[in-house]
Structure formats: structure tokens, C-alpha cells
Amino acid sequence: MPQPNPFKPVVLCLSGHDPSGGAGLQADIEALMAQGCHAAPAVTALTVQNTVDVTDFRVLDRDWVLAQANAVLGDMPVSAVKLGMLGSVEMVDTVIELMQANPALPLVCDPVLRAGGGGSLGKEDVGFALRERLLPLALIATPNLPEARILAELPEGSADECAAKLLPYCQNLLITGGHGDEADIHNRLYCKDGSQHDFTCARLPGSYHGSGCTLASALSGRLALGEELVGAVRSALDYTWRTLRDAEQPGHGQYVPRRLPLDFCS
Ligand SMILES: Nc1ncnc2c1ncn2[C@@H]1O[C@H](COP(=O)(O)OP(=O)(O)OP(=O)(O)O)[C@@H](O)[C@H]1O
Ligand SMILES: Cc1ncc(CO)c(N)n1
Q1: Do 145 and 181 meet the contact criterion of CB atoms below 8 Å apart?
Q2: Cβ-contact 221, 36 below 8 angstroms
Q3: Residue 29 is inside which H or E element, if any?
Q4: Which residues form the Pyridoxamine kinase/Phosphomethylpyrimidine kinase domain (predicted)?
């Protein structure tokens, strides 16, 4: 009879579903499995999208999301929580309620507002609600630069300028640099203690679907395993880069990260 592995950390994921399988909950499950963690995927929203575009989305009722999360929390020893697409201000407030009832859990918040292809994944005002009420509860937020600009309300802001505006709202902030056309990608980690860490990697050719989900999930897994923050960010970025290096193009649009277990990545 199969025995449960008592040492595999559980990460509760509250994210949207992407039927193409490149982003959202499927990305969370694959990336967490690759870190040696168990993903408990709770659905916040359904989307109609593929590797080319998003055409629609529907946010679930708050009661359904609370019921899913509480079913997991009442059953398993959850070590961390990862947030992806929330989609509405009501869902932001639902997650806040959940986190206030479970304040000891480390929270990784990927403030998803748009898909990699540009389509909207949130109703208006989600950015404001995220910044004002949810970011303060997160151990770390992982916006890409366009998301950081929306959250900071600085449409032309640099990463440093956005961080200066956002740090009063969050403990730690990782502004990712996948968007843009510089030869190198600069990922910048700003910590509450005033330290800053730059992680630079070579830009791979092409455009990727679910790179941000992969990164935030891998990071939540590294934290659930007990890694300290800066090391966990480094491991998650390294892992994400390898999944993009090995990415495949299953459709007509963006490449999908190949989220192999760590043992299979060189
Ligand atoms: N072209 C690329 N080459 C190398 N690494 C990349 C590339 N694009 C993204 N990455 C890596 O993936 C991480 C997350 O990507 P990005 O900043 O594009 O997030 P995102 O826009 O939230 O992704 P998505 O919306 O597709 O989930 C980056 O921090 C970077 O390290
Ligand atoms: C459901 C979902 N979450 C996040 C993203 C961001 O990549 C996406 N495209 N779809």
C-alpha cells in the first residue's frame, strides 16, 4: 500500500486555470512537483486562453474558493501559500480573509494582471486592492516590470522607482525583467531590510507562456522546503531559466516552459 511521504511540504496554490496548460494552476503543480513539493491547487478563476491570447475569464464565487482552501487547510500541514490570478477585487478580499485566519503561513504573491501575450486577467481596480491590502500580508511579491508599473501607478517607472513606491506596502519585492529587449534579463530583489540583490541571466530567444507562474511557484516551493529568502529566489530563478531553455512550442504562440524535475535539469 502506498505510504504518504511525511516530509514533502504542501503548498496551497490559489490561481486561475489555463486550459493550454502553460500557465496558471498547471504551471504551479508542475513547478512545485519539480522542487519536491506537493501542490494543493485551489481554483480562483477559469480562463479561455491559449498560447496566443486570452479571450475571456470568469472568477469563481468567493464561497467556493474559501471552501476549497479550507478543505485543504483542515486536512494537510500546509507550509506555504502561492497566489496567482485572482481576477477581481472580491477575490483579493477573499484571499485576505483566508490569510488573516492563517497569519503564520509564508505567502508568495504573483500579482497577475495580464497574460504574457498581453490579454487582461483582472478586472479594473484589482491592482489597487492588491497593493493596498494584499501585498502587506505577503512575504514576497513577484511582479514583472509592467505589473510593477501598474501597482505603483508609475506608467514609465524604472524598477527602482516602482520599488521605492511599493516597498512601503510589502516585505520583499522581486521585480522580474522578462519583458523588454535588453540582451540580459535583470531580476531585482528589494528587501525590507534595505538590501538589494540583482540576478542577471542571459535572455533566451522567444516569448514564454507561464514563466512568471513557474518562477513564483518554484519560489514558494523553495521557501516551503525551508530555504532562506535570497537563496530561494536564486534557486527559483535558476530553475525557471532552465525550464525556458528547454521550452517547447505546442501551439501557434508562445513557448511553454519544460518543467522537468530538478534531477533532469542540468
Ligand atoms: N526570454 C527570456 N530569457 C530568459 N529568461 C526569461 C525570459 N523571459 C522570462 N525569463 C525568466 O522568467 C522570469 C519570469 O518571466 P517574466 O518576467 O516574463 O514573468 P511574467 O511576465 O509574469 O510571465 P508570464 O505572464 O508569462 O507568466 C524572469 O524573471 C526571467 O528570469
Ligand atoms: C490562469 C493564468 N494565470 C496566470 C497567467 C500569467 O501567465 C496566465 N496566462 N493565466
Answers
A1: no
A2: yes
A3: helix 24-35
A4: 18-254
Chain centroid, CA 6 distance in Å:
25
C-alpha dihedral sign at 23, 24, 25, 30: positive
- The whole-angstrom distance between residue 52's C-alpha and the CA centroid of its chain comes to 20
Q: Which amino acid appears at position 23 of this protein? A: A
Q: What is the pLDDT of residues 217-259, one digit of tens each?
A: 999 999 999 999 999 999 999 999 999 999 999 999 999 999 9
How far, in Å, from the CA of 64 to the mean position of ligand 1?
31
| pTM, 2 dp | 0.96
Counting ligand 1 atoms within 8 A of each CB, the residue from 174, 184, 208 with the most, and so the one to mutate, is 208
Nearest ligand to residue 82 Cα: 2
CA atoms within 13 A on the CB side of 87: 19
Which helix (H) or strand (E) segment holds residue 222: the answer is helix 211-224
Q: Which ligand neighbours the alpha carbon of 19 most closely?
A: 2
Can you give the C-alpha Rg of the chain in angstroms? 17
Whose grid coordinates read 474559501? 66
pLDDT, the chain, mean:
94
- Other CB atoms within a 10 A radius of the CB of residue 46 amount to 18
All residues at 6 or more sequence positions from 256 whose CB lies less than 8 Å from its CB, including other chains:
20, 21, 22, 51, 208, 209, 210, 247, 248, 249, 250
Q: Are 202 and 195 in contact (CB under 8 A)?
A: no
Ligand nearest to the CA of 122: 2
Residues of the chain with pLDDT > 70, as a percent, come to: 96
Q: Looking at the CA of residue 209, tell me the nearest atom of ligand 2.
A: 7
Ligand 1 atom nearest to 177, measured from its CA: 17
CA distance 150 to 245: 29
